[in-house]
Amino acid sequence: MTFYVQAPIFVFREFMRHRMASYNEESGRYRELNPVFYVPAATRNLQQVGKPGAYDFLPGTPEQSELVRAETERTSREAYAAYKRMLDAGVAREVARIVLPLNIYSSMYVTVNARSLMNFLSLRTKREGTHFPSFPQREIEMCAEKMEDLWAELMPLTYAAFGTNGRVAP
Q: What would you report as the CA-atom Rg of the chain, rounded to the nearest whole angstrom?
């Protein structure tokens, strides 16, 4: 199966920790990157409670949410303006891109077999009834949820077996 994924670069780094797929990401060396940045929604949980690897994220205060939004937008605009100044001055794209933050969007094709996808989904989605609890970062979980929806339509019997087996790949 091949999925087309558009997400911030920091999410792609989470994907690539899983050496279970073939990734073909657009290159900032060969084309100018568009000024599309991820800004967490006000509903994004902001406060970490518990120990690393087994913590919960709780909602932030309205002031924290506004701070995250304002600072993310400000620094993204400033970084992209610096990127454009360098490009306009004739600096190579592969050099100019070094000032861009990890919340800039990129795109990639992810090619994966069903067995590896099941393993990925068991680690990157949080579901009740799973044999192995998972604590995914919300942004990669959103990608995994969309991939799971598409896979469920494409391979309904395999998907049902995955659920019956406690979301563990056979």
A: 18
CA angle at 53 for the pair 49 and 57, rounded to the nearest 5°: 30
Q: Which among 29, 74, 93, 124 is annotated as catalytic?
A: 124
Given this model, what pLDDT does residue 134 score?
A: 81
2-8 and 22-25 as β-strands: parallel, antiparallel, unpaired? unpaired
What mean pLDDT is predicted for residues 94-108?
Answer: 96
Question: 22-46 pLDDT, tens per residue?
Answer: 999 888 888 899 999 999 999 999 9
Q: Which two tokens stand for residue 84?
A: 């454009």
Is residue 122 a contact partner of residue 168, using CB atoms and an 8 Å limit? yes
The set of residues, in sequence order, having a beta carbon less than 8 Å from that of 125 and lying 6+ positions away, is 134, 136, 141, 144, 145, 148, 167
Do residues 162 and 115 lie in contact, with contact meaning Cβ atoms separated by under 8 Å? Answer: no
What is the DSSP annotation of 14-53?
HHHTSTTSEEEE--TTTSPPP--B----TTS--EEEEETT
Q: What is the pTM of this model?
A: 0.87
Structure tokens of 43?
Answer: 């509903």
Active site residue 77: no
The segment with the largest mean pLDDT, out of 54-68, 77-91, 131-145, is 77-91
